[in-house]
Amino acid sequence: MSEKKKKFPIPHTYAIIFSIVILAAIATYIVPAGQFDREEVDGRTVVVGGSYQEVEPNPIGFFEVFMAIPEGMAAGSSIIFYIFLVGGAFGVIRATNAIEAGIHKTVVKLGKKEFLLIPITMFIFSILGATMGMSEESIIFVPIGIAIARAIGYDAITGTAMVSLGAASGFIGGMLNPFTVGIAQGIAEVPIFSGFGYRFVVYIFILSLAIFYVMRYARKVKKEPSLSVIADIEIKAKKEAEEKIKESGLPEFSTRHLLVFLIIFGGLIFNVYGVFQWGWYLTELAASFIIIGLISGVVGGLSINQVFDAFVDGMKLVAFGALIVGFARAILVVMENGVIIDTLVNSLATVISQLPQTVNVVGMLAVQTITNLFIPSGSGQAATTMPIMTPLSDLLGINRQIAVLAYQYGDGISNSIIPTSASLMGYLAVAGIPYERWVKFIWKLVLGWFCMAIVALVVAVLIGVS
Q1: At 153, is the secondary structure helix, strand, or coil?
Q2: Which of 110, 223, 256, 423 has the least C-beta neighbours within 10 A?
Q3: Which among 23, 64, 57 is positioned nearest to 339, based on CA atoms?
Q4: 170-181 pLDDT, tens per residue?
Q5: How many CB atoms lie under 10 A from the CB of residue 440?
Q6: For the packed helices 282-299 and 255-278, what is the interaxial angle rounded to 10 degrees?
Q7: What residue intervals traverse the membrane (predicted)?
Q8: How far apart are CA 41 and CA 344, in angstroms?
């Protein structure tokens, strides 16, 4: 044949998500509507076990499918605007040339030890993920990770993975994560942060696999850039960088650049303090980054007009992915309005009870993983599923601690690949990486993590982790 067969084109990211919205709407005509009773416990709304009942169906109509998109935008507004504002702040920081100058100096200093950047960076972010549940908050570090990776000869996937998969490894391990393990253990009525030792051992395996996976990919890309899953994007980025260097040369690290870095790191430390001491979340963090960006711009030598031009440019770069968060949230809006989420959770829990005892715990992991697609909030998933899984684990003779482990791994692992994950979409938005390219890169690691989780759960049952 003189002509090669055309490959089936990969669907656009928005097309994939909109297809799921349509499927969710169709499901409201097939899946019976139902709800659990809920009650307030220590300020949290939790599901009352055994209270599920069918209710009047509310199938989603044609126009309501499209209404779900702006409703999803509204529901995810805090995350969407956080991404936009942080993108703007980093646009200003980038305009000062502090990052380029700092990276150039760092790479020169590291010399042949540059490969250490990946494990060190991933370890640091894993600790933040394991102790403070860092997820969306680490989005702001992605541009720095990408800039460092490209300077060394890697690609944007490597830079994004250094940050996101480091944080994800710690989030999955969750030894001291108050937003997932802490809430789930509270609902399951087991001592908060108990089982630390076993979780820590599993965390080491999860992190080690992630580091190996990212380093292996990074070496391959550095040796042969065309093997990058975003090779075309990297070519364009490299050309833009070369043009910038031709125009202005590599910036020398100056006192102004040092001051910009001091402002950034001082601001980050202040943010961590705000999260722990004042309960800060996305709104407060976004406000803080606006301040960091504006001060950095002025100190970095930009005029007021240049500061806000750079701010707008930064927001433009993340627009594609920021709005995906709203599209993804539309899936949940459709299922909530159609009153079928509780039905799906109840059905999945019922299926587990019919499984042989040796695979019950794997069934619990599967339920939590599927539920995470619909309820990607870790605390929200804990509040929804743990009141069901706790009595179910008692009935099946499985220790409640293991039920928490199944929730923890089901929630944490799939966050790195599902399109409804706000943090993942935020990472990709800032990095400019299409969702389908990320899936091509990450799926083998996610599969490996799930295999580890299954082994960890089976071993936990055999040794009686409590």
Answers
A1: coil
A2: 223
A3: 57
A4: 999 988 777 788
A5: 14
A6: 160
A7: 12-31, 73-93, 114-132, 138-157, 164-184, 196-215, 258-280, 286-305, 317-335, 417-435, 442-465
A8: 23
